Structure formats: structure tokens, C-alpha cells
Amino acid sequence: MARSLNFRQIEAFRALMTTGTTTASAKMLNTTQPSISRLLSQIQSTTGLKLFELSRGRLNPTPEANKLYEAVQRHFLGIDKIEQTVALIRRSGTGFLRIGATPVLGMGVLPRIIPQFRRQYEGVDISLHTITSPQLREGLLNGLYDVGLTTTSFHFSDDEFETQVLDEGRAVCVMSKNHELASRRRIEPTDFARNTLLTLESGDDLTDAWRSILAKNNVVPASVIETTYSATICALAEAEMGIGVVSPYATAIMADRVHALPLTPAVPVKAFLIFPRNLTKSALAVAFGQMAKGYFSVKDRPAKK
Questions:
Q1: For 87, which of 19, 173, 195, 257 is 20 to 30 Å away at the CA?
Q2: What's the average model confidence in pLDDT over 19-36?
Q3: What is the pLDDT of residue 136?
Q4: 3-state SS of the chain?
Q5: Closest Cα partner for 94 from 278, 241, 295, 288?
Q6: Which of residues 305 and 240 earns the better pLDDT score?
């Protein structure tokens, strides 16, 4: 049976590929040049591969060595990542907070919460991913995120997730500041019969609710433009492509560029904090959740129309 490579041999090989000389490799690994040479001889003997050619007193890697080095580098990158995580945990407890959020909250709300969190937890690294609700669900279940924020509870069953309501508001209608409806006090379903409806795709709580209201009132929009993000709806409204129905959190992204009016009938919108039940909450995730609740409870936050 062929012998297996040991870590010290692989480490010596990587050092030589990185530094170019056995002397520098020995210094890098805090050992001697003869030790490096012996380990390199062993790795060639064990693998049965010619990894280096001596030319003008220098060891030059062969194509086989370059191929092996690619695999070794991938291995060491994983080790480096582990060491970075250990350093983060040693420095600040859990050290790393991973947040998954649907785009409207990731862009419209979290930039207001994260600065406060960083002031209190200075040394903590944060990963923020803005993703769809189905992606958020899978990420939470698979341990990719410590906490999630979303405006829809459709994908999050009670047996798999702990769902907390952070806020309750009302949807708004966005349009260009020059739109003929901008002088109105509120927007009604019949207004969409003469305008293009800017909307998210089906499967979003708000989108489905407003389309249901239009159907009950026998209103067919002049045309429809579907998109993936509320921010895109606002951008299209600014470009006078139509009028859109979005959550109040979306207007924070483009408040200076679009005009927002309340809807009749009112459509409730909620913001949810999500934790997976299959994982223990980290102290940082709990602290972040409390801070998010505090943000929404402050009376002088940006008003929801």
C-alpha cells in the first residue's frame, strides 16, 4: 500500500512553492534548510512524481508541482479561514454576525440599525446578504445566517422558525413627483385602471394582497411591469413608467426621488425577525434582534405613510 503524505511534507512543499528557495522555506517554517530538503525528497518519493528540476542552483517546479500546488492552496485557504474565525471568536465572543434580509429591509432599514450595533459591538465582523425569502429560508436552515429579516412570513413555518413581528405598517403608492396623481391625498384601486402597475412578482404578501383588491374591484391596470425588487419599482416610478405599491420601508431608499401616498383600502405590511429553531441563537444575534426592535419602537423614526 502506498504511503500517505503527512502535513509536514505538504507544508514544506507549499513553503517552497511560495518562497522559491529552500533557505527561505526554512525561515518561513522556522526550521533548517536540510530539513526542508529532506521533506521535499520524501514527498517526491511518496507521490512518485518529479516535482522539481534543479537548474543553475535553483529548484524549478514542474507542471506536476504546479497542479499539486493548486490543490494544496485550496486546502490551506480553508485552514486560513478557520484560523480567522478562531481569532474573531477569541476577540469578541462569537465574533461574527451573519444577517440575511430581503432587499427592502436590507437596503431601507438595516443601514440605520447596523451603525448603532457596531458602536456597541466594535470588534464584531458583520456579513449582510440581501436575498429573496426562499433563499433566506434555506440559508437559515443550513446555518448560513444567524438571523433573518423579511416582510413576508409565507416561507417560514412555526415548526422550523421562531418568527417575531418587528413592526406593522401600511403599504404606500409611489410615483414620480410630477405625476398627475401626486396632488391627491390617497390612491384608490380605480386609479390603476388608467396607469401602469409597477409590482413585484406573485408570492410576495403585499403584491398578492393588492392584486386581490384590484380583482375584487374589477380593476384591470392599463398595463403591468413586474420586477424583483421594491427599489426597482421606485426607480421605475421616478422614471414615470407607472405607479407602484411598495412597503413603507422601501420609500426610505428613494425618499428624495419619488412621491408616496397612502392607499385606500389600507394594506397592512409587517417586518419579521426570523430565527431557525434547529440552531441555538448566538448572543450577538439576540442582541441584534433587540436592537432592531428598539429601532422600530422609537417614535421619531422616519414616518410610515
A1: 19
A2: 90
A3: 92
A4: CCCCCCHHHHHHHHHHHHHCCHHHHHHHCCCCHHHHHHHHHHHHHHHCCCCEEEECCEEEECHHHHHHHHHHHHHHHHHHHHHHHHHHHHHHCCCEEEEEECHHHHHHCHHHHHHHHHHHCCCCEEEEEECCHHHHHHHHHCCCCCEEEECCCCCCCCCCEEEEEEEEEECEEEECCCCCCCCCCCECHHHHHHCEEEEECCCCHHHHHHHHHHHHCCCCCCEEEEECCHHHHHHHHHCCCCEEEECCCHHHCCCCCCEEEEECCCCEEEEEEEEECCCCCCHHHHHHHHHHHHHHHCCCCCCCC
A5: 288
A6: 240
pLDDT at 122 over 90: no
Cβ-contact 59, 17 below 8 angstroms: no
Show the cell assigned to 76: 490551506
Instruction: Give, to the nearest 10 degrees, the angle between helix 283-297 and helix 110-120.
Output: 130
Q: pTM above the 0.90 mark?
A: no
**Residue with the three cell numbers 522556522:** 30
Residue with the larger pLDDT of the pair 36 and 303 = 36
The CB-based long-range contact list for 140-144 (8 Å cut-off, 24+ gap) reads: 140/100, 140/274, 140/275, 140/276, 141/276, 141/278, 143/276, 143/279, 144/98, 144/100
Q: Quick: pLDDT tens for 172-229.
A: 999 999 999 999 999 999 999 999 999 988 777 888 899 999 999 999 999 999 998 8
Per-residue pLDDT at 85 = 60
Q: Which residues pair with 170 in a beta bridge?
A: 268
In angstroms, the Cα distances linking 257 to 26, 153, 236 are: 61, 29, 11
Task: Tell me what the mean pLDDT of segment 121-133 comes to.
Answer: 88
Which residues are paired to 263 by β-bridges? 187
